[in-house]
Amino acid sequence: MIRRLFLLALVIVLALSVKAWFDTMGAPAAKRHVVESDELAPGAAPITIALISDIHVAGPDMPPSRLAEIVAQINALEPDLVAIAGDLVSEKRTATHIYTAEEIVAPLSELNAPLGTVLVPGNHDHWFDWPGLESELAKIENMTALANEAAQIGPLAIAGVDDDFTGKANLPLALEGMATLTGPRIALTHSPDIFPQVPVNFDLVLAGHTHCGQIAYPWGGAPATMSDYGDLYACGVVEQHGKTLITGAGLGTSLLPIRLFTKPEIWLIEVRAKGR
């Protein structure tokens, strides 16, 4: 009896190990969502945004070479704009290698969306070296880093809100920069926890940070989401008060270099005119 229980436990451990390896190292799943906006004229061409977050470049699971492969996957999806919701890096204690800011950022220079790439910092970016990362990002053409700022990017008005988890978010300051901008209003931020405070005239809020739990229950939900709202805003699409929040599961890992019952994600969000 004891031998059978031991063998059963061994089989379960092996199965979970294989599952964790595929969940951690598999190619990101491409998920899609459509958002309609009154701010696009009838007949206007839709705009596709590729949302990624929580890249967490570090060994063993996310070396720059793997990020380069993901960049190629994003390019093949042909988005109009790439939005990165923070955490380019991981400095986790379990990392087998910590890369330099230059090595972390280099693969992102190959993103080739027509409207470029826009990003905001995450908590790990601040803990690592945000000024160093920002300096490297500034060398890339069509790369826009926003921290409590707003920018007109093609037909889109984008408010980039700094990281709420580290207390650096200043939504009112970002909103000040939106006053003269036109088009669908989009907030890009690291943590989804600012969603209730985003004005109702925004079409879309894009976030990451939660990893959808990273290590989740097989039946849904997770022991921890790093969100003050628990599971409410922790994963996927939420629609409230005319606003849409999309929280991506991210690409890499934090704390432990494994995922289980969550997978890396690329979200493709089509913003189109109402009634199109």
Notes on the structure:
There is one protein chain. The strands form 2 sheets. The chain has a 6-stranded mixed β-sheet, with no helix packed on it. The longest helix is centred in the first third of the chain and has 24 residues, at 2-25. It has 6 helices and 12 strands. It is an alpha/beta fold. Strand 10 (236-240) and strand 11 (243-247) form a beta hairpin. The protein starts with a helix and ends with a strand.
Q: Which features does this protein show?
A:
276 residues; alpha/beta; 6-stranded mixed sheet; 6 helices
State the separation between the terminal residues, measured CA to CA. Answer: 64 Å
Strands of the widest sheet, in order across it, are 1-12-2-3-4-5
How many strand units?
12
Outline, from the CA principal axes? Answer: globular
How large a portion of the residues is in β-strands, by DSSP E? 15-25%
- SS element count, helices: 6
Structural class by secondary-structure content? alpha/beta
Helix content: 10-25%
The secondary-structure element order is HEEHEHEHHEEEHEEEEE
Helix/strand layout:
Elements: H1 2-25, E1 29-37, E2 47-52, H2 64-77, E3 81-84, H3 101-105, E4 117-119, H4 123-128, H5 130-137, E5 143-145, E6 149-153, E7 156-161, H6 171-176, E8 185-189, E9 204-207, E10 236-240, E11 243-247, E12 265-273
In short:
The chain is α/β, with parallel strands linked by helices and 276 residues long. The protein contains 6 helices and 12 strands. The chain has a 6-stranded mixed β-sheet, with no helix packed on it. It has a 6-stranded mixed β-sheet with strand order 6-7-8-9-11-10.
